[in-house]
What does this fold into?
Amino acid sequence: MAIRSVKGMNDILPEEVGRWHLLESEFRSLAELYGFREIRTPILENTELFVRSIGDATEVVEKQMFTLERDRESFSMRPEGTAGAARAYVQHGVNAREPVSRWYYLGPMFRAERPQRGRYRQFYQAGLEVYGDAGPAGDAELIDLVVTLYKRLGISDVEVLLNSIGGPETRARYRQVLLEYLEPRSSELSEHARVRLNDNPLRILDSKDPRDKATVAGVPSVLDHLTPEDREHWDGLRRALDALGVEYKVTPGLVRGLDYYTRTLFEVTSNAGELGAQNTLGAGGRYDNMIAELGGPKVPAIGFAFGLDRILLAMGERELARAGTCFVAPMGEPALLRGLALGRELRAGGIRTEVDSRGGSLKSMLRRADSMAARICFVLGESELERGVVQMKDLAAHTQTEVPLDQAVTRAAEVLASKPEGSTT
Ligand code: ATP
Ligand code: MG
It folds into this structure.
């Protein structure tokens, strides 16, 4: 019998890898635009790191880690990226060098799950971490970045679910409230949830068991039990999101599976493409105590992880292909000279751009723009040049607008951040 790959661990063949490159480069360029820099940490960490940061009463640590022993030491394949990044932050004393650090990472994560569509044993995450900013304005900006990436990728129907679970004091209070509500109803809970009543009742809110879901439907909201400081943070977050025009849905039942979260929690869901039941595209939150718990200084932090496999399922081929790129088609040498400068301006504005400098016909240039799946094509001829304008074609929406040359970058950024009209996903 021929040997096959491990169940839930998939090959990405050369014909599929282009999709991954596009997604990864969209993520990288946006993260860098917001001032994030890449951190690369090992796949294998001491098991203790995940036990301490994620928490031993969590599904991930309890059931899903690939752990191996060697010379009586225990190592685990990373199930997520936050713990390793936080460990590196502490180990290298980063806070002594800079008050705020913005890091991003990209790579495979490992969890022993039952494989199904959108749920694998080796899957890929791109993540963002901000250390040293207690928020809430920073939380809002991170959420804005997250939403912008999904928009740029052309994923429709994204919904931001938002909650606050407060700090340790709120949690202790709310734990009491939960117990008072759930204990008299413990016979309606699943067996697993009954165990959780003793060690981690908050986790019951995250249970996927139908019995638990029905029972927790009427629990009091954590938002009614925030301490004044946690309340102030929550209100500030909502004001900042409103100021940025970011839409969100307050979801008091959102608790997330990992123990390390404090205050802000958020999750992004979508029904786009072929996602099916695994419709959470990414998740994150604040973890103000983790750095100290890992032996570091008291530095607040917040992070988010995008599930790349699920993003690819959510994206239609066309949107994926058209994500982010600009093409400049100049006609004649004067237009070419101005076109080269336009290309430079677009790139300076963070927009991936190709300028056609071959000097061919408009038709051949448009064909080239289409084959490289550009989203926007700027057409610059003599008459445009005289009037200081350029024709901007949205190749996904099939529209053309004349825009002043000195506004081309802003207008292109607006188009790239918008969902292509008539898009099917
Ligand atoms: P779920 O409730 O779907 O199991 P989770 O709470 O375990 O998700 P996180 O640990 O918050 O997920 O991870 C962040 C994101 O990583 C998820 O929203 C999802 O997009 C992705 N992800 C998590 N586990 C897997 C997996 N096994 N396969 C593919 N993607 C995953
Ligand atoms: Mg999970």
In short: The longest strand covers residues 101-110. Residues 151 and 423 are 12 Å apart (CA to CA). The chain has a mean pLDDT of 91.
